[in-house]
Design brief:
- The chain has helices spanning 4-17, 28-45, 48-77, 100-124, 130-157, 179-206, 218-245, 249-260, 274-324, 350-398, 406-417, 430-456, 458-472, 481-492, 506-522, 527-536, 543-564, 575-585, 639-660, 675-681, 683-696; strands spanning 81-83, 94-96, 175-177, 332-334, 340-342, 500-501.
- The chain has 700 residues and is mainly α.
- The two termini are 56 Å apart.
- Residues 230-301, 385-458 form the Potassium channel domain.
């Protein structure tokens, strides 16, 4: 029984789809693909400042916002002053209650900070609109910072910190500022930093430099939740152990930080009770797991996002530099600072020109990736060195009562950064302990990024050096000791041979282009099918048979590419493979198909006649193929994703053309690859003869 409602819906859908294939508009997949390519070009031109505003600022604010809230809690729950009895130091002093106005300002600051942080969390989780949440976050963090700044300024304005003059704690040597005061300073500084980050994001969105909202993936948004989880875990753990061990709460927080970050200085804070020693087993395991999650997020999310952006910027600059360096008279193109390639354009036909540019682009890719790795290492190494040297300077000032030299603080901070923790030096002052908590938490992302960058550069170079030494000594390569030694000497030399690469060989080029495509197409035929196709001859093939063959090739290539998606590192295809893929998706355009969308960039199409330089035209104004801005190698997607998406769209378009045809006939241009062409050219017969010869020789 027919359903009238369903029939109406089908007719309506057909009316919406059919104009797309009648030349009135582009198919939806093609339109989306064009929009994605335009977005990619915009991403290349997008200044790093606005990328940082839309991606880096929210990540930093989401990470450090909860940390500032934790420091505000520390500044509120303990007094800012301590009385030092005669003959004692500040660690054995007694607390002095804070004035009511100071508690009120602290509480109000924490209130506004929590509202701002909540708005930021709802903004990241897309529960609150950006234009509402962002002003709340900016204003909230700013007010929280201002309130703390006012409290700190007013409190320290009095020489006795608002103690009565007749109080025994009034003399300067009889009182001291506690860690709570220094946590308040750290919280205020972080609030102002987060305010600046959020204001930059709001300004960029308001000025239309990017769409309103955070350009974060769902996984990146979880980094804030993980940070909040760690902060809450740290605060609750300190609260529990302060009761079990009888410690001051801020001392317990300092101990918890030492424990979870596995520094273990072995100072005068360690569990003494049976309950404390039992609970620390579970407390340490849980904290280390949370830190592991945070480190994993920093490595896989922050680094990957930054790596793609940095790679895109370096790649575009190197591509333009290579284009502008072309010298037609010298037949050279500079692909790196010390590397050149032959670039003879006088006699090149379009396929050879495409292959030559492909090889140049591959070399540019390799140089850009190498530069990106070392640039990232230099940035992360600078950050780590700054954390080490400046941290040592702060401890040198904070621990003046211990008479530490600057070298001793360098030694102490180095031992802590590497989590060795000998315990021969440890902070004892209130300011030193408060800064130690902040400093060690900053070390987590800094060292995570540094270690990751070192693994891509220094560690990889050392591994390659070890393998190279092995090939020269106990593990010679398959070519023998002498060949390995000559290769190493050639690589280390500064002559032209180490940096000069030839273009494609003409004889090899003409042979491989046809043979490779023929072989790849013939693989999709069974031996009986090949034999029948050859015996039927050219006249035995119909358009219907060619069309079915094309569809089978598309479907099988899509299935094969699905396996390449899981490759790590992402698979990079050879020039022959790219020519084959581009031919599969390169639809021919006839006079009646002016509006037929083509998924292949114009310069890379089979019918392209780009083969030489135009006289009198600058290099950067020439028409380029693989070095052009539409090059698939410049895509923000992997090569497999780029090819798979377009082959899938091509197959979808083919099936739509069949559906819209009459009596099952395909409506549209002829397929780009046809079985009849393989038979007519003799390529299929040659392939079978080579296959039979290989079988007789036992190669198959």
């Amino acid at each position: 029984m027919n359903d009238p409602g369903a029939e109406t819906a089908i007719d309506k859908a057909e009316e919406e789809i059919e104009p797309q294939f009648d030349g009135q508009s582009d198919p939806e997949p093609v339109k989306k693909d064009r929009e994605a390519r335009e977005k990619q070009r915009h991403d290349y031109r997008d200044p790093s400042l606005w990328w940082f505003a839309s991606t880096g600022c929210p990540l930093l604010a989401g990470t450090f916002g909860p940390l500032a809230n934790a420091f505000s809690v520390c500044a509120l729950v303990r007094s800012w002053r301590v009385y030092i009895p005669p003959g004692q130091n500040e660690n054995y002093g007694s607390r002095i209650s804070d004035p009511a106005w100071l508690l009120a300002i602290n509480g109000l600051s924490l209130f506004f900070a929590l509202i701002a942080n909540t708005a930021l969390l709802l903004n990241m989780s897309r529960r609150l609109r950006f234009n509402i949440a962002q002003p709340i976050s900016v204003i909230g963090f700013f007010i929280a910072g201002v309130l703390l700044l006012v409290a700190i300024t007013v409190f320290t304005d009095s020489p006795t910190y608002h103690l009565p003059l007749d109080s025994p704690a009034a003399p300067a040597e009889a009182h001291a500022l506690t860690a709570a005061y220094y946590f308040a300073i750290q919280a205020a500084v972080i609030y102002f930093i987060v305010t600046g980050l959020m204001a930059l994001t709001a300004w960029g969105a308001w000025m239309k430099h990017f769409a309103g909202g955070f350009r974060l993936t769902m996984a990146q948004r979880t980094l804030m939740l993980q940070t909040m989880s760690f902060v809450v875990y740290l605060l609750l753990g300190a609260l529990i152990f302060s009761h079990l061990e009888g410690w001051e709460y801020l001392d317990a927080l300092y101990w918890a930080d030492l424990t979870l970050l596995t520094i273990g200085l072995g100072s005068d804070f360690s569990p003494k009770t049976h309950a404390g020693r039992t609970l620390v087993i579970f407390f340490a395991i849980g904290g280390i797991i949370i830190i592991g999650l945070v480190i994993g997020s920093i490595r896989t999310l922050v680094l990957d996002r930054g790596k793609r952006k940095l790679s895109a910027r370096i790649m575009e600059k190197k591509r333009l530099r290579a284009i502008n360096s072309v010298s037609p008279r010298k037949n050279r193109i500079r692909v790196s600072r010390f590397g050149t390639m032959k670039f003879d354009n006088d006699e090149l036909d379009p396929p050879k020109r495409r292959e030559l540019e492909f090889n140049v682009m591959r070399k540019v890719q390799a140089c850009a990736e190498r530069d990106r790795k070392w640039m990232a290492l230099s940035i992360s190494l600078t950050a780590a060195m700054s954390l080490w040297l400046l941290g040592a300077l702060v401890f040198f000032k904070a621990e003046y009562q211990q008479d530490w030299t600057y070298f001793q603080t360098l030694y102490f901070t180095y031992i802590c950064l590497l989590t060795i923790g000998y315990g021969d030096f440890y902070p004892q002052s209130f300011s030193g302990k408060a800064f130690f908590v902040l400093w060690t938490l900053l070390a987590v992302p800094t060292l995570t990024i540094l270690i990751s960058d070192m693994s891509d550069t220094v560690v990889a170079a050392f591994s390659n050096l070890t393998m190279w030494v092995g090939t020269l000594t106990v593990l010679p390569g398959e070519h023998g000791f002498r060949a390995s030694l000559k290769m190493a000497a050639r690589q280390l030399s500064t002559g032209e041979s180490a940096h000069y690469a030839k273009g494609p060989d003409d004889a090899e080029h003409d042979r491989t282009v046809v043979d490779d495509i023929t072989e790849r197409l013939a693989v999709h035929l069974e031996e009986t099918e090949m034999a029948e196709a050859i015996s039927a001859g050219e006249g035995g093939h119909t358009d219907d048979r060619d069309r079915h063959f094309y569809h089978v090739v598309l479907a099988r290539e899509v299935r094969r590419l699905m396996h390449d998606l899981a490759a790590d590192p992402p698979k990079k295809y050879s020039w022959q493979e790219w020519e084959y893929f581009l031919r599969l998706m390169d639809t021919e355009e006839g006079e009646d198909d002016e509006n037929q969308a083509n998924l292949v960039p114009e310069a890379l199409r089979q019918a392209s006649t780009i083969g030489r330089f135009k006289k009198g035209v600058k290099a950067k104004e020439q028409t380029w193929t693989w070095l052009g801005q539409d090059s698939p190698l410049l895509s923000y997607k992997s090569e497999t994703e780029w090819v798979l998406e377009r082959l899938g769209t091509t197959l979808e378009n083919e099936l739509q053309l069949i559906r819209l045809g009459k009596d099952g006939e395909r409506k549209g241009p002829a397929p780009p690859v046809r079985l009849s062409e393989l038979v007519r050219s003799g390529g299929l017969k040659s392939f079978m003869e080579r296959r039979e010869k290989q079988k007789s020789n036992g190669d198959v």
